[in-house]
From TrEMBL, chain A:
This protein's name: Uncharacterized protein
Encoding gene, per UniProt annotation: LOC100834861
Locations listed in the record: Endoplasmic reticulum membrane
Membrane topology, record value: Multi-pass membrane protein
One Pfam family it belongs to: MMgT
Broad class of the protein's primary localization: endoplasmic reticulum
Bilayer-crossing regions: 45-66
GO terms assigned for molecular function: inorganic cation transmembrane transporter activity
Keywords: Endoplasmic reticulum, Membrane, Transmembrane, Transmembrane helix
GO cellular component: early endosome; EMC complex; Golgi apparatus; plasma membrane
Taxonomy of the source species: Eukaryota, Viridiplantae, Streptophyta, Embryophyta, Tracheophyta
Family note: Belongs to the membrane magnesium transporter (TC 1.A.67) family.
Database matches in InterPro entries: MMgT
Subunit structure: Component of the ER membrane protein complex (EMC).
UniProtKB/TrEMBL annotation, chain B:
Protein species of origin: Brachypodium distachyon
Name of the molecule in the record: ER membrane protein complex subunit 2
Gene3D superfamilies tied to this protein: Tetratricopeptide repeat domain
EMC2 TPR-like domain: residues covered: 108-218
Lipid bilayer topology: Peripheral membrane protein
Main location: endoplasmic reticulum
Top-rank taxon: Eukaryota
Length: 106, 309
C-alpha cells in the first residue's frame, strides 16, 4: 500500500515534469524559429515511464480485486432470495409458540 | 447489467455464509445485530424468528434506536413483517402503529396494514385494503402481487394462476412473478407451462444456475427423448455455472444419460457425449469420498447399476 502510493506520486511527478519539459522545449523552438514536430526522446521516455508507474500504482493501491466471473467461488450462487412479495402466512409459525415477553415498548 | 442484477437477486455462497455467521454472533450477544438485519434485508432472506428477536432488542433500546436515526423506520417495517411471519400480530400492530403515527397517509404503511389483515386471515378486509391502494395507484406492483398471494393463501391456485398471468401481461419484466408462476405450475404438475416460465427466467437472468437446474428438472420430469437430451444440456450448463459444486446437477446428468441410453437401447448409433456422464460420475464419487465417506459405496453401487462408471 505504502509503496504503491509512493510509486503513484512519482509517476504523477514524472508526467508533470514531462509536461514542463515540453513547454520549455517549445519555448526554445520559438526562439530558434524551428517547427515543432514532436517532443524530444527523453521527454517521451519520461512519459512512458510515468504512464507505466501510474498504471502500476492504480492497479496496486486500491484493495483486492473482486471476481466478476459468475462461476468463481465467491460469486457462486447458492440460493434464490425468498419471494417476499408473494409470502403467505399459512405455515408452521402458527403452531410454534413464540416467546411471549418479546414486546415492543412504546 | 446481467451480472449486477444476478448479484442483487440471488445469494452468493460467501454472502450466505456471512449471514449465518452474523446471525450466530448476534444471537449469542456478540453484537452486529444491525449488520445482520441490514444483510438479511438486502439478501431478502426470510428468517423471521431471529429478525424479530434482534430487531426488537434494537428497537427497545432507546440509545440504539437514536443511533439508527432515520434507518429505524425501515427496521420497524422489517420487524413488523417478521412479527407477522411469526404470528405475533400484537407486536406487528405496535410497529405499524408507530409507523403510521410517523408517516400518516403513507401507501407503504397502508400496505403493511393490509398485510396485517392477511396475517390475521381476514381475507375480505385485506382485499378491500388492497383495492383501495390500487384505486389510488393502479400500477402498484406490490398490491397486485399481494392479491395473488391472498388467492394462494386461500388455496385457490387456479385463481392465483389467473391473476398471475394477468399481472405478467402488464409487468413482463418481473422475474419474481415469473418464478412464482413457475413454482405454482410445478406444484400443480403443469410441467409444460412451468417449462415456459423457466425459459423466460433463463432469458432474463442467464447467469443464475438455479434456473437452469429447475428448467432441466422440469424437462426431465416431462420425459421423452428430446426433452431428456435438452435436460442433460441444461444440467451440464448448471455444472458449468456452479463450477461443478452442485450435486443435484451432477446426479441429473447421470440420471439423464441413463434414461437416454435406456430409450435408445438397440439403436445405439451415436455415443457422442459419453465423456460427460463418466466425468459427472467421477466428480460425484470424489465429492462423496470427501464429504461423506460412509455413503461412497452406495453411490458407487448406484452408478454401476446405471452403467456409468
Amino acid at each position: 500500500m505504502g509503496i504503491g502510493y509512493v510509486v503513484g506520486v512519482l509517476g504523477g511527478a514524472l508526467l508533470a515534469h514531462a509536461a514542463y519539459a515540453t513547454i520549455q522545449y517549445r519555448a526554445v523552438l520559438k526562439i530558434t524559429e524551428e517547427e515543432f514536430s514532436r517532443p524530444p526522446v527523453d521527454v517521451m521516455m519520461q512519459l512512458l515511464l510515468g504512464l507505466a508507474l501510474c498504471m502500476w500504482a492504480g492497479v496496486s493501491v486500491p484493495a483486492k480485486f473482486v471476481s466478476v466471473l459468475p462461476h468463481s467461488e465467491e460469486n457462486r450462487i447458492v440460493s434464490l432470495p425468498a419471494n417476499m412479495d408473494f409470502m403467505i402466512f399459512n405455515h408452521r409459525g402458527r403452531a410454534l409458540p413464540s416467546d411471549a415477553d418479546l414486546k415492543l415498548k412504546i | 447489467m446481467a451480472a449486477t442484477t444476478a448479484i442483487s437477486t440471488a445469494t452468493a455462497a460467501a454472502e450466505e455464509a456471512r449471514l449465518l455467521r452474523l446471525e450466530e454472533q448476534a444471537e449469542h450477544g456478540g453484537g452486529g445485530a444491525w449488520e445482520y438485519l441490514s444483510l438479511a434485508r438486502r439478501l431478502r432472506a426470510r428468517r423471521p424468528a431471529p429478525v424479530l428477536r434482534l430487531g426488537l432488542s434494537l428497537l427497545n433500546d432507546a440509545s440504539a434506536r437514536s443511533r439508527l436515526a432515520s434507518e429505524q423506520w425501515t427496521l420497524y417495517e422489517q420487524v413488523a413483517v417478521a412479527a407477522m411471519d411469526c404470528q405475533r400480530v400484537d407486536v406487528a400492530k405496535d410497529c405499524i402503529g408507530v409507523l403510521s403515527k410517523q408517516f400518516p397517509g403513507s401507501t407503504r404503511v397502508g400496505r403493511l396494514e393490509a398485510l396485517l389483515f392477511e396475517a390475521k386471515g381476514d381475507w375480505a378486509e385485506a382485499e378491500r385494503a388492497y383495492a383501495l391502494i390500487l384505486e389510488n395507484n393502479p400500477f402498484d406492483q406490490i398490491a397486485h402481487k399481494r392479491k395473488i398471494a391472498i388467492a394462494k393463501a386461500q388455496g385457490d391456485m387456479s385463481v392465483a394462476v389467473d391473476y398471475l398471468n394477468k399481472y405478467l401481461e402488464l409487468f413482463m419484466a418481473d422475474h419474481d412473478a415469473w418464478r412464482e408462476l413457475a413454482e405454482i405450475y410445478v406444484s400443480l404438475q403443469m410441467y409444460k407451462q412451468a417449462a415456459f416460465c423457466y425459459e423466460e427466467l433463463i432469458l432474463a437472468q442467464p447467469t443464475i444456475p438455479l434456473y437452469h437446474l429447475a428448467y432441466a428438472e422440469v424437462l426431465y420430469t416431462l420425459g421423452g427423448l428430446e426433452n431428456l437430451q435438452t435436460a442433460k444440456k441444461y444440467y451440464a450448463s448448471t455444472i458449468q455455472l456452479t463450477g461443478g459444486k452442485n450435486t443435484r446437477a451432477l446426479f441429473g446428468v447421470c440420471l439423464c444419460s441413463a434414461a437416454i441410453s435406456q430409450l435408445t437401447k438397440g439403436r445405439n448409433k451415436e455415443e457422442d457425449s459419453s465423456e460427460l456422464q463418466s466425468l459427472a460420475a467421477e466428480a460425484l464419487l470424489k465429492d462423496y469420498k470427501q464429504r461423506s465417506p460412509s455413503k461412497e459405496a452406495l453411490i458407487a453401487g448406484m452408478l454401476k447399476n446405471m452403467k456409468l462408471s
